[in-house]
Sequence to fold (151 residues):
Amino acid sequence: MAKFRKASRNDLDTIVALLADDDLGSKRELYQDPLPESYIDAFNKINLDPNQELIVVEDENQSIIGTLQLSFIQYLTYQGGIRAQIEAVRIRKEMRGKGLGRQMFEWAINRVKKRDAHLLQLTTDKQRPEALKFYESLGFKATHEGMKLHF
Fold:
């Protein structure tokens, strides 16, 4: 059974390795030893922000097998509601296809409900059609067209 916990600074190398260990992540992440300061700075900001939760998932041997980040966004619409965003969901390669992704999302959905958010949203790259099918199997619906402006 997987164990979920808040990430610590000691987990950062493993988290960045997970982020870099796929076709898309390998093009945008810079996993090296030592880690670039940008990752350390980002971790420190996330760790200090009560509206950010960087989570690691451990197996029975306390090895990190997955990670995800939840962001809680307070806004005025929906009568001052809270919207949650899930990002950077990654699973160690040898653990994929074994139900861990579903377990991670079930955990995240329960966590979001405990924080009284009225919805959980995500974006997925159009280059990941299998991910889209997975999210739909969890009940997510493509209700909006997402757009990005990179700088």
